[in-house]
Amino acid sequence: MALKTINGAALRKMILNGAKLLDNNKQHVDSLNVFPVPDGDTGTNMSLTLISAAKEVTACPNNNIDALCEAVSKGALRGARGNSGVITSQILKGMTMVLSGCSEEITVKDLAAAMDKGVEIAYKAVTKPQEGTILTVIRMMSEQAAKYAKRANGNVLDFFTSVLKAGEEALKLTPELLPVLKKAGVVDAGGRGLLIVFQGFYNSLTGNEEVNLDFDDSIRKATEGRPANNYEQFHADLTSLDSIEFAYCTEFFVINLKPEAKESDIDVFRNRLMEIGDCVLVIGDLSMVKVHVHTNNPGQALSYALELGELDRIKIENMLEQNRVLLAHREETELKPYGMVSVCSGEGMASIFKDLMVDEIIEGGQTMNPSADDIASACDKINATDIFVFPNNKNIILAAEQAKEISKRNIHVVKTTNVPQGLSAVLAFNPQDSVDDNLESMEEAREAVKVGSVTFAVRKTSIDGFDLEEGDIIGLSDKSIIAKGSDPESVAMEIVDSLIDDDISTITLYYGYKTKEDDANALTEKIAEKYPDCDVDAHNGGQALYYYIIALE
Predict the structure, then answer these.
(1) Which of 30, 106, 337, 368 is deepest in the core (most CB within 10 A)?
(2) CA distances from 76 to 49, 56, 94, 204, 242 (A)
(3) Are 177 and 136 in contact (CB under 8 A)?
(4) 467: which strand partners?
């Protein structure tokens, strides 16, 4: 099959199918995370990033290549989550910068130039680019793209076949370039996710949109019984006051459904509402249906419903007017100099940050990385000129940095990689100091904290000198596993013994996942008895997946 160019309609299908294929295979990508802990989320982060881009593409009213490229770049930027998602968004940003200049058709040479620009932008987005990652994969794919593009009369399908082959070869090299991958016996998760997206592009062009992927059984077995990341639980209250896509909150009941109505008709009705709005809720059966939708055309929603039956208890609220009232109230409030936004998981952790006068808490962390848009929206809610953001997770820092591009506030990211660092940095805040002085104080406070954590292994592996079985309790510090055992308390004690030195005066335990308060208090007493010169305390953090997070200062 010869295909010389790609038009706007084909480009739209490529983006949608790339996002769909990655979403179908995100659990496989998650399983490739290096550490055998239960919070690997590379595939989920990349999938949510692509889904955000796909939503913007779906909303694009035409197949103009320039408009579609703008939609892809905007959607990926706003939806970028985690390092892998941010880098993916930058790859797409670079590619669309080139492709937007194509008026009606995209050639092989255009695709090669786009990939080259994607590599450039992605490498610039990372302070210290590391080979053996998604960056290596896209770079080697781009190099092959440039070689293929030199051919006369290049075929788009052959181009993608060639690029995908180069990508697979690059992926095989990642364990040799990054020793931690080789030690864990996996290839780079982000690189695999990128290849899945490009495979989705190719499948769309060949008309095989429904084709799924099959991977090595050893990887598949590693994920058996492992809980999938559940982003449905991510519910940060980050309502934007500045723009509402769908103006009318429309609620009603459909009663006395027509005799010929079938259950399938309710499903069709639901799908039709999703085409004209969002926040769609259609529940019930042939006796009665409850409906909720945000739409710009409530009359159309009611018209669709009348095809099913009679309408009852109709309520339509103008969210634009509600929005104006909220905006007016916000504008009347004088801006304060500083605000603070913190990311954390667990009600206990959130309460501690609130007690320290942090303005906005974003629920997130491992397994639920907030997007750049989530962070920017949280900052925009605060009536302050300068906002300090505490990501509290290394996988959220890039998204926080990216939020600077879309927020109306002056965002300053304090590069905290865990919650104890975030708490110490917040405590160092002085409202009388300048931005620069506060950043310096916060950085010093962040670096003064030693942090360990206790969780469990989700697969059998050998890493950092430990032979692990699924279910083993493990202790982490920085990027290494430093202890293993049969119960969380003994492992926590090993972590303290390993990290303590003469400069430590305070030890704080934050207990969460499946940990009882009595067990945490008993461990606190044991540590205090062994290290009488230290103040030892325990707090209910409520964090998921980690029995204990331990801070030594």
Answers:
(1) 368
(2) 5, 9, 12, 20, 20
(3) yes
(4) 462
Q: How do residues 484-531 score in pLDDT, each as one tens digit?
A: 998 999 999 999 999 999 999 999 999 998 999 999 999 999 999 999
SS3 453: strand
Give CA–CA dist 412/55, Å, rounded.
29
Give the tokens for residue 375: 């962070």
Phi first, then psi: what are they for 508, rounded to 5°? -125, 130
What is the rounded distance in angstroms from the CA atom of residue 16 to the CA atom of residue 107? 20
Segment (H or E) for 268: helix 263-276
CA-wise closest residue to 17 among 209, 220, 230:
209
Q: How far apart are CA 405 and CA 42, in angstroms?
A: 23
Kindly state the DSSP code that residue 296 receives in the 8-state scheme.
S
What pLDDT digit, counting tens, does each position of 129-186 carry? Answer: 888 899 999 999 999 999 999 886 789 999 999 999 999 999 999 888 887 777 777 8
Side-chain-side CA neighbours of 209 within 13 Å: the count stands at 12
CA 330 to chain centre: 29
Q: Which residues contact 401 (CB under 8 A, 6 or more apart)?
A: 413
C-alpha span between 226 and 87 (Å, rounded) = 26
Task: Determine the 3-state secondary structure of 339 from DSSP.
Answer: strand
- Partner residues linked to 98 by β-bridges: none
Backbone angles phi, psi at 12, to 5 degrees: -60, -50
> Given 3-state DSSP classes, what are the helix, strand and coil percentages for the chain, each rounded to the nearest 5?
50, 20, 30
Side-by-side strand order, sheet with 277-285: 277-285, 288-295, 248-255, 310-318
> How many Å apart are CA 263 and CA 475, to the nearest integer?
52
Could you give the CA distance from residue 79 to residue 370 in angstroms, rounded to a whole number? 9
